[in-house]
Amino acid sequence: MYTDITKVSQMAKQHKKTDPTVIDTTSGVFIDETFGIGYSKTFDALAKTLTPFSKYNYGGVSGGAKFQNNILKWLFGDEDITIPLSPFATMGATGALSNTLDIFGRPGKTILTTDLYWHNYELMAQTHHMQLDTFPLTVDGAFNRQGFKEKAEQIAAREERLLFILNQPAHNPTGYSLNRTEMEDLLGILGAIHKEVILLNDIAYLDLAKEKSHFDLLMHCPENVKVILAYSFSKSLGLYGLRLGASVLLGGTEEERKYFNEQNYLLSRTKWNSPNQEAVNTFNLIMDNEHYLENVRKEIASVKETLRQRSDYLLAFLNEFAIPHSPYSDGFFVTIKTDHPEALFEQFLNHLIYPIEVNKGIRIAIAPLPMPVLKDLCERMKTIDFTV
User: pLDDT by residue (tens digit) across 36-51?
Assistant: First the structure.
């Protein structure tokens, strides 16, 4: 089931123009408690210092050596890195995901992910002429070890490689983050498959839950598992429309790393050519100065704290009224469970609330809801029948 999030979001925005009481909970964009878009003030101030040449000229397709070094520092910090890492600039995590599917996917083959997923995966499968297959989470909404094992083995038995998209940490749409034991189990299952495995880790929400990334485990995967990270600056710095991210191959042989870089170069060159130079060069300025970097870290911490307060409030409400929901750890979204998402979606619309339908659920974005709006949302939900 594919829900066109952009279409529903535009419906909400148009409706809100004629009725300001409409609550738009469709978008993965952070709105702060002053009702302004959330973004890094440090980034914004530094971007204004760039010369026109630094903002508008073409740049290196890979982001340039400086960006590549800085993105590794940004992602891994003090991690004990004992393997080679191959970063490449992309247009957000979407660009990294798309490039990776171009490199390792094949028409008619399968992409595996969880049965609750960011619906752009379905569009990507369609545009790459691939099939999207899923495995169920547990009844409680956690990692389903047996379900994953069975589905992964089924696909591996009939195809030359397994391509698995893992949206972790702060999974969209549930906000779930794997614990260490779950990640160890997942990697153990992949390692037991006697074929090549492409583990495409969508870390778009990494900075909201970096402590749950389990990078140390990913850097020491079984030999048959190739890990590629898809990162976005949208959620960390608020660069939603500016578009900057990275694809990072963890480890690999010299030949594999060369192939990865060559293919990313060709694909990026023919899709967007040069990454956004205002974003690249401003990010480099941040990484060159510990004071700027510390300011950005504080800004991200503030967003995390606001999301914690909002999620605490919403989850307390859902629990008080016994409204079933997926387990939430971190991130922008909470998912309400239902066997009839279409009917429940219509009830939300009747209360002038625009959420997003997902598989057996309704996704509520807490990111765009300042606390007064969130409280209004909960008041309206008191008269919604969640037993439909």
Answer: 999 999 999 999 999 9
